[in-house]
Amino acid sequence: MICADIVLVSSNRQGCNISIVSEVIKLDQDAPSLNKNSMLLLSFFCFWFFFNLKKDNSLITYFMCILHYFLHISRNKPLRGPTCGVENMLFYAITEGREHVPVSQFIAALRKTGLHVSDPRLKESMDKLRQIMRESVGEVLIDRELFHRCVGGNISLLMQAFRKKFIIPEFAEFAEKINKIYKTVKNQDEGKVANYIPQLAKFSPELWGVSLCTVDGQRHSVGDTKQPFCLQSCVKPLQYAIAVHELGTENVHRYVGMEPSGVKFNMLSLDDDDKPHNPMVNAGAIVISSLIKVKHVKMMSSVCTYQDCCLKLKKIHKYIATFLQRNLFQSEKETGDRNFAIGYYMKEKKCFPPGVEMIDALDFYFQLCSMEVTCESGSVLAATLANGGICPITDERVLSAEAVRNTLTLMHSCGMYDFSGQMAFHVGLPAKSGVSGAILLVIPNVMGMMCWSPPLDRVGNSVRGIHFCQELVSLFNFHNYDDLRHFVKKQDPRKQTGDDNLMFAAHNGDLSALRRFSLFSMDMDQKDYDSRTALHVAAAEGTHSLFAFIWIHYSFGREDVVNVLKDYQQECRQRLEQQIDAEDPQKLSTVERQL
């Protein structure tokens, strides 16, 4: 009962709150399970505390947290600290300190970082989790053992996500802002659905979807993003990238130019060298199709060509769903008089490489335009371009850096039909539109987006898609020529918000932030201008949970406290003897015997 005796003597002297005395008595009841060193440390602390109390609330909080720490030891509860491994730190960061959480909470935490359960990088982990859920009766709770068993192979990826090391660190907030832009743009009711191809005219003008995928594989979708639609002209940058990747820039541009045409995309027009102006107009795309066909198809049958078309886009990303819309393909052929005219004109001018039949090249071009994707899969295609040719959700290089650079350059200057100049001026990002209502938007080194809404403006671009791009760049500094250093009116989602201040988190009782900082391997002993640590601030603010977290998880404070208490031991003992001697000499002898 040594602690209780010290507290009772000192509390009478200092007028201490009786709740502290009861806590110490409660601790004394558990004292047999404390080792000798722990008891000595606690006794030293009791001396120091009650001779420096003077009814200071911060000291009271400090003392109460220390008592809780010793009670934690006395009841043989395992402490969780860095020695338990980074997996445990990650687990408790996700569960916010709880030992068990439902699977739904774990999935929700993943989504906040931008990771999806459908991410191919998480496939093995998610398969294990689904297997356990199928074999279990009732709700499955994730504990540390299950967490390690299921996600042990993805620790590096999850550490990156929960340390907020992805390109968009505050992804949940960013997604909310994208949703607001989406809702604002949804009210646009201008434009008409393309009807010169019968299959396109069947789409409802109310359809509207936006998906994005960052270079780290963070994904978000809002609206009609699972509705399949055909790529149409959005396939042009993809086929050009494949051609450059496999044939090289010099070989490709022997047959097609790289200048904006200044005329409509489907005009019978060639440059001064009798080459199509660029790969983003119909003439250039038909020639690019012939180049790919020469290398890969080699006069295959029509059925084999269908398969080849699928493989071409599968080369960009093997996990996306791409299908040939056969009805649309037939519709394209039946209404493709202008493209046939362009083909015959280029045949006369000898624009095609040797060994290519013009009709076969046109068929191949129609098939590529008839490829179906969704906004979700299209955003991964765009993100592959944004990521320098490496698919962000497989980490597989599928296009060369040279091919991607050339493609983005041409998209920036020629990708939006007769709106290309205005798009470059106001939005400042590479993009490609299609008459199906799709816009493939690339923010280099950040993300790719696919917007889709069938109503088109007079030049053939999606009305809602154009407005979305403009609103996006007006809110975020994504324009290629935005001043990232001095222009503060726009937001930069690539930067972390100001919640990475350790003292600020300790002052506001933000335990989740402290758990995240522990994942960052942040120095928890850093001091502010007044030489206060987070431990001091947590004690002063009365945030018991934060104090306990820092005290239990990090050893630096314990050694310092032991040293300080040892230094004060002799002085405190002398002061106690003098005070008790003046009041009651008999009490002094009692205390001496106990010490």
Automatic annotation (TrEMBL):
Its EC number is 3.5.1.2. It is an enzyme of class 3 (hydrolase). Residues 87-169 form the Glutaminase EF-hand domain. It catalyses: L-glutamine + H2O = L-glutamate + NH4(+). Keywords: ANK repeat, Hydrolase, Repeat. Pfam families: EF-hand_14, Glutaminase. One of its GO terms (molecular function) is glutaminase activity. Transmembrane segments: none annotated. GO terms for biological process: glutamate biosynthetic process; L-glutamine catabolic process. It comes from the Eukaryota. InterPro entries: Ankyrin_rpt-contain_sf, Beta-lactam/transpept-like, Glutaminase, Glutaminase_EF-hand. Belongs to the glutaminase family. HAMAP family: Glutaminase (MF_00313). This is glutaminase. It comes from Gouania willdenowi (Blunt-snouted clingfish). The lineage of its organism: Eukaryota, Metazoa, Chordata, Craniata, Vertebrata. The gene is gls2b.
